[in-house]
From TrEMBL:
Nucleoside triphosphate pyrophosphatase that hydrolyzes 7-methyl-GTP (m(7)GTP). May have a dual role in cell division arrest and in preventing the incorporation of modified nucleotides into cellular nucleic acids. PANTHER family: BIFUNCTIONAL DTTP/UTP PYROPHOSPHATASE/METHYLTRANSFERASE PROTEIN-RELATED (PTHR43213), BIFUNCTIONAL DTTP_UTP PYROPHOSPHATASE_METHYLTRANSFERASE PROTEIN-RELATED (PTHR43213:SF5). It comes from Microvirgula aerodenitrificans. The active site is at D68 (proton acceptor). GO terms for cellular component: cytoplasm. It is an enzyme of class 3 (hydrolase). It comes from the Bacteria. CDD domains: Maf. This is 7-methyl-GTP pyrophosphatase. InterPro entries: ITPase-like_fam (IPR029001), Maf-like (IPR003697). The gene is maf. It is found in: Cytoplasm. GO terms for biological process: nucleotide metabolic process. It catalyses: N(7)-methyl-GTP + H2O = N(7)-methyl-GMP + diphosphate + H(+).
């Protein structure tokens, strides 16, 4: 079966390519706005599923992978800052504190209609960075404005992070690879 990643993220493409399976990456059509009163887990799951579902008609006889991540601080969802000014505010709020990242994975078999889902929870303890350090980070890592929480752990953002607690380090980057291997196996796709 054709394997499709419903994402424009180069980081998700890089993670998936580690499996050595041929795949296509196609931009999903999905409004990523959280719904009022929606929990972080519910938002991440809904968006991962919607991303995959948005490609269902265009990709018959395919396994479509959708993934989304929501950062949570004190019960409040932190999205993608979008601008440097918002990223500065977000990183100031999170310095010296713990954030919880909910990374949802949805795998849709368009031939059978089967939908499988998993959520990875990662806790990130941020360093107590100064205003100057936050500004220097964003000047050197401008892509961070497109990441939940405003920090990219896989790059220079590691300098802002004190500790990460996770069962899958790939999940924080955007794609729970360990869970994906299991979901693919359930669909008859052996990685090894």
């Amino acid at each position: 079966m054709r394997l499709v990643l419903a994402s424009t993220s180069r980081f998700r493409r890089e993670i998936l390519s580690r499996l050595g399976l041929p795949f296509e990456a196609i931009a999903p059509d999905c409004d990523e706005t959280p719904l009022p009163g929606e929990t972080a887990v519910a938002t991440a799951c809904r968006l991962a599923r919607q991303k995959a579902e948005s490609l269902r008609a265009a990709c018959p006889d395919a396994l479509i992978i959708g993934s989304d991540q929501v950062a949570l601080l004190d019960g409040r969802q932190l999205g993608k800052p979008g601008t440097v000014a918002h990223a500065v505010d977000m990183l100031k709020q999170t310095r010296g504190r713990a954030l919880t990242f909910h990374t949802a994975l949805s795998l849709i078999n368009t031939a059978s209609g089967r939908v499988q889902e998993q959520v990875d929870i990662t806790t990130v303890r941020m360093r107590d960075a100064s205003d100057a350090q936050i500004a220097a980070y964003l000047a050197r890592e401008p892509e961070a404005v497109h990441c939940a929480g405003g920090c990219m752990s896989e790059a220079l953002g590691g300098a802002l992070i004190e500790r990460i607690e996770s069962t899958d380090p790939n999940a924080l980057v955007g794609l729970p690879l360990f869970a994906l291997v299991t979901l693919l196996k359930n669909e008859g796709v052996e990685v090894l």
